[in-house]
Amino acid sequence: MDLSAWQQRLLAFAADREWPPYLNPKNIAMALSVEVAELVECYQWLDPEQARQLTDAEPGRTQVAEEMADVLMYLLHLARETGIDLEAACEAKLKRNAQKYPAP
């Protein structure tokens, strides 16, 4: 996945709708939290086995996929707005996690 290309595509989509004035880190972070909550709602009250099976069939698969896409798109907007390189951030975080939680 070319994150930079997706960021430009999302920005163009937003620009076509005159949304850029609203795309600031605060608003995006708030919208991101709402989308994460909607993803959580898909799994609310399911037991672990039901949660594992939710995406095996429709409508659960589409519902979860759409919420995950919303989360990713807002995260890409936020990374662009803050100038954070998500690939570099993930590499650095994984390295820190490996040191913090070494394999047995």
From TrEMBL:
GO terms for biological process: nucleoside triphosphate catabolic process. One of its GO terms (molecular function) is nucleoside triphosphate diphosphatase activity. Pfam families: MazG-like. It comes from the Bacteria. InterPro entries: dCTP_Pyrophosphatase (IPR052555), DCTPP (IPR025984). This is Nucleotide pyrophosphohydrolase.
